[in-house]
Write a structure and sequence with these properties.
The chain is mainly alpha-helical and 185 residues long. It has a domain of 102 residues. Helix content is 73%, strand content 0%. The mean pLDDT is 88.
Length: 185
């Protein structure tokens, strides 16, 4: 009788994300993840349950990593505008692989309404504390929307952007945040 071998959840998530990046969200099945991770289908199911739970774990890991990088840049107890500026910086630094990872996870939201709610809450929290009734708050909100729009257009391949265009767009977004902060970076 064989010994039970513990499944490394992070390795399984890595395999699932690689599948999404290389073959698209449609390729994400419990069986395909098991093969990619080199474990049994039952190993994936015992760790994550269903495909939807696997996607939720992927999305949660990505969000946790993104938020940790924001916290690292913004520092402890940042003001809302500083937190938003850090969000923009993390987005700007996103490389192709990370963009593909995010795009794949976003695409999965189309098939699972329960994941959409989590995403809506996450996005709403980005503007927590920003007073959008003021011109400065509206500029900050516009910067956030421009940031997310540029990111999604680039990651989904809807708009080709050279590195120069990417830098210019983010210089403009930073300028909006500077205006929202009374002209201070």
């Amino acid at each position: 009788m064989g010994r039970y071998q513990a499944v490394d959840r992070d390795s399984v998530l890595d395999a699932a994300e690689m599948l999404v990046r290389t073959r698209g969200i449609a390729a994400l099945t419990i069986d395909a993840v098991a093969k990619a991770a080199g474990i049994s289908k039952g190993g994936v199911q015992s760790s994550f349950g269903t495909k939807d739970q696997l996607i939720a774990a992927m999305y949660e890991r990505w969000g946790t990593e993104f938020d940790a990088e924001i916290a690292r840049l913004a520092g402890e107890a940042p003001l809302p505008l500083a937190r938003l500026r850090a969000h923009v910086e993390v987005t700007y630094r996103t490389d192709k692989a990370e963009g593909d990872r995010a795009a794949g996870l976003m695409a999965s939201l189309l098939n699972a309404p329960e994941h959409l709610t989590l995403s809506q809450e996450w996005y709403a929290s980005r503007l927590d504390g920003i007073d959008v009734s003021t011109p400065e708050g509206r500029r900050a909100r516009l910067a956030f929307l421009a940031n997310e729009g540029a990111f999604m257009l680039r990651c989904f391949g809807f708009m080709k952007m050279s590195e120069r265009e990417w830098r210019e767009i983010f210089a403009d977004i930073r300028g909006l945040l500077d205006e929202a902060n009374g002209g201070r970076p």
